[in-house]
Amino acid sequence: MTTGSGERVFRYRLDIYWRALALYLLALLGYGLVRGGVANGYIAVVLSDPLVLLLLLFVFWTAGVLLWAWSRAPSIVVGDTYLRLRNRFGERLLRLEEIEQVRLPRRQQGWGRLIRIRLKGRRRVIVVRPAAYERPQELFQEFVRLSRQLRTP
Asked: What pLDDT digit, counting tens, does each position of 34-78 carry?
């Protein structure tokens, strides 16, 4: 999404959590039907079965992570000379002058590719996973543009 001032906004994607939650619920329901069966119009689930407990743990864990990510609502706003890391509780503005280095992955695709941002005067590195945001290729290109701006004096 683009705002009127030339900013590009990239919101965090929640679809992976929805899909995982649906998959775990379907697996739990399917295994519950096979293991427990249907009696008098009710699905009987055996809660003492270790696989049912494991699937329940996955369902609750995924639901918790989904609610946590949804409540934070993280996003990245890229401007011409700055980068804004924002969530529901606050934001951090990184001007081009504050950034020492932007390390890009060699390959541009895949879930595990990470972009590392090193700030001047700080040892801590900010890590961004473009695949976790909307329009990951466009976000990656914005980081390439920012990296080029850093290299040109």
From this structure: 887 777 777 777 778 888 899 999 999 999 999 999 998 899 999
Q: Domain boundaries in the chain?
A: 13-72, 75-151
pLDDT bracket for residue 122 (50, 70, 90): confident
CA pair distance 15, 124, nearest whole angstrom: 29
pTM reported for the whole predicted model: 0.75
75-151 CATH fold: PH-domain like (2.30.29)
